[in-house]
Amino acid sequence: MKWIDYSSPNTIDEAISILSGKKGKARSLAGGTDLIVQMRAAPQRLNNPDIIVDIKSIPELNQVEFGSNGLTIGAAVPCYKIYQNAKIADAYPGLIDSASLIGGTQIQGRASLGGNLCNAAPSGDAIPTLIAHNVTCTIVGPKGERTVSAEDFCTAPGKTILDGDEILVSLHFPTPPKGFGARYMRFIPRNEMDIAVVGAGVSVIIDSSGKISNAKIALASVAPTPIVINDAVDALIGQEPTESVINNAGQIARNSIKPITDMRGTVEFRQQLSDVLTRRALNDAITRAKGGSINDH
Ligand SMILES: Cc1cc2nc3c(=O)[nH]c(=O)nc-3n(C[C@H](O)[C@H](O)[C@H](O)COP(=O)(O)OP(=O)(O)OC[C@H]3O[C@@H](n4cnc5c(N)ncnc54)[C@H](O)[C@@H]3O)c2cc1C
């Protein structure tokens, strides 16, 4: 077995300097629930790292901060710290949908939203939720800091806009506007510990006249990366959230995607799920937007 070094820097600068020095041969580790499994199963996929850079000791990657313009969550904060935080659960119940269903209790003790996003699985359960909440990602590398929307972060299965010597530092969730509601749902054949056959993360804003003034619909497991269904959103904006309007959005989602058939589901099954989950997630997001709650956590 190959020798792999381990480092646990306490600052972003230190982490970047290690990553830059070993560009292409160093990997960041947050919870390790993807990384360790992949290194064991398919080391060639990760280009045989020489060193693991454990970023969990860096304060900025562990922050949970409510500010005047929203919530900033460090990229390495484990899921349990998110769903056990009453303030987050109150302000962002749609985020709790994802944080509380990734893996099981043990996985949630380590797994982070940042790791889910950086792993860039087409089925990543946090990614549609980050997109639906219009999250901005703060990235730091040797050339300094930059921000990218969660929507633009994943570029292909397992690939992101990150350079090998950059780290994702934090995720910024804007303050939910009045009338905002979000929801994430997925279909898996088992009750938990499974990969989404389809996942749907949606958000809506209901204005004072009861109409949908804005929305976002992101689907997982239907394309090489989680994708946004803009045509379905266009069909919602300016409409009252009636059954026929929601059904129409579900149909558009179904017809917009070009999924593959694999061992977990056929093209037809994924199309059907995209319709059903888009409709259900929209209805629940609308309930939340109107101040109601979903009895699901
Ligand atoms: C039993 C089991 C069940 C699971 N169930 C689910 C599930 O239901 N849904 C789901 O979506 N996933 C699931 N997963 C996958 C995994 O747990 C999640 O994707 C998790 O969110 C990954 O987070 P992590 O902190 O462990 O990432 P890590 O494994 O530490 O990292 C993942 C990848 O991202 C990179 N990385 C991590 N953080 C950063 C950073 N800040 N900057 C740059 N690069 C970074 C790493 O180098 C690595 O390539 C499961 C895994 C297991 C083992």
Present the secondary structure layout:
Elements: E1 5-7, H1 12-21, E2 26-29, H2 35-41, E3 51-54, E4 64-67, E5 70-74, H3 79-83, H4 86-91, H5 93-99, H6 105-108, H7 113-119, H8 127-132, E6 136-141, E7 144-149, E8 154-156, E9 159-160, E10 167-174, E11 180-187, E12 198-206, E13 212-220, E14 227-228, H9 230-236, H10 243-256, H11 267-289
Parallel strand pairs: 1-3, 2-3
Antiparallel strand pairs: 4-5, 5-10, 6-7, 6-10, 8-9, 11-12, 12-13, 13-14
Please explain how this structure is put together:
With 297 residues, the chain is of the alpha+beta class. β2, α2 and β3 (51-54) form a beta-alpha-beta unit. The protein has helices spanning 12-21, 35-41, 79-83, 86-91, 93-99, 105-108, 113-119, 127-132, 230-236, 243-256, 267-289; strands spanning 5-7, 26-29, 51-54, 64-67, 70-74, 136-141, 144-149, 154-156, 159-160, 167-174, 180-187, 198-206, 212-220, 227-228. It folds into 3 domains: 5-53, 2-Layer Sandwich (Uridine Diphospho-n-acetylenolpyruvylglucosamine Reductase, domain 2), CATH 3.30.43; 60-174, Uridine Diphospho-n-acetylenolpyruvylglucosamine Reductase, domain 3 (2-Layer Sandwich), CATH 3.30.465; 180-289, 2-Layer Sandwich (Enolase-like, domain 1). It is built from 11 helices and 14 strands. The chain binds flavin-adenine dinucleotide. Flavin-adenine dinucleotide (FAD) binds next to β2, α2, α7 and β10.
Number of strands: 14
The total count of helices amounts to: 11
Would you list the SSEs in sequence order as H and E? EHEHEEEHHHHHHEEEEEEEEEHHH
Work out the helicity level.
25-40%
CATH architecture of the largest domain: 2-Layer Sandwich
Neighbour order of strands in the largest sheet = 4-5-10-6-7
Radius of gyration: 19 Å
Largest sheet: 5 strands, antiparallel
Mean pLDDT: 95
What is the first-to-last residue Cα distance? 42 Å
Count of domain modules = 3
Principal-axes geometry comes out as globular
Q: What compounds are bound to the protein?
A: flavin-adenine dinucleotide
CATH class of the largest domain: Alpha Beta
Helix-and-strand structural type = alpha+beta
In terms of DSSP E residues, the strand content is 15-25%
Uncertain parts: none
By CATH, the topology of the largest domain is Uridine Diphospho-n-acetylenolpyruvylglucosamine Reductase, domain 3
